[in-house]
Amino acid sequence: MSDGRPELAAAQREHWQDTYRVHPKMYGSGPSEPALYAADVFAAEGVGRILELAAGHGRDTLFFAHRGFTVVATDFSDVAAAQIGRVAQAQGVAARVEATVHDMRNPLPLGPGSIDAVFAHMALCMALSTKEIHAIVDEVGRVLKAGGKFIYTVRHTGDAHYGIGHCHGDDIFECGGFAVHFFDHELVERLAAGWILDDVHDFEEGDLPRRLWRVTATKPN
Ligand SMILES: C[S@@+](CC[C@H](N)C(=O)[O-])C[C@H]1O[C@@H](n2cnc3c(N)ncnc32)[C@H](O)[C@@H]1O
Fold this sequence. Notes:
Structural class: alpha/beta
Mean pLDDT: 96
CATH architecture: 3-Layer(aba) Sandwich
Bound molecules: S-adenosylmethionine
Shape: globular
CATH superfamily: Vaccinia Virus protein VP39
Strand order of the largest sheet: 3-2-1-4-5-10-9
Number of domains: 1
Largest sheet: 7 strands, mixed
Strand content: 25-35%
């Protein structure tokens, strides 16, 4: 899937590894607002098995597991994935959590239609080219069952960090060591080709604050 920023991807992976070693609870232990929303949407749809992309140290993974869903949680940081496994064990939900080291730039290790719903909070807006983002969404469409929901969030061009720091091209800016691909509306629209675009919701997270869109899409039957 890669189209030419392997050095940036490798540096970002190291940066995230170091970050999780130093700040193992970087995002806190409670669920994010998008996860609270997604859990209600997924429950209403009768979802059993969720794929979570770029799950980090698992604040949302563990919440989903406690809500009774089974979660395949992926991240390219093995430090983060190992932490999810340990905490899931300690909290008694290990049977419902599969923490897997996976780089989103590679095909998903899952069969076609094998997942009921997909959640990706601040995943597609990582240091990924537009081409890689399209390929990831194609992969999500492959593993998601027909009629399944895909809920993702991305930082967008209204964010205070947009245009700040080192520019890697393709709307990717690196600030404080973290590279982010800031989305514009056109990218959201183009990614929705072949999907039913249910909702795009503007929200904020954290102290900066980060400015994000929460996108809800359905794979057509
Ligand atoms: C902003 S954090 C969000 C973590 C988590 N979703 C949350 O909200 O708590 C982004 C995550 O993406 C992961 N990541 C970045 N690039 C990735 C890639 N190419 N493949 C898999 N994970 C990646 C990082 O390791 C990090 O955990």
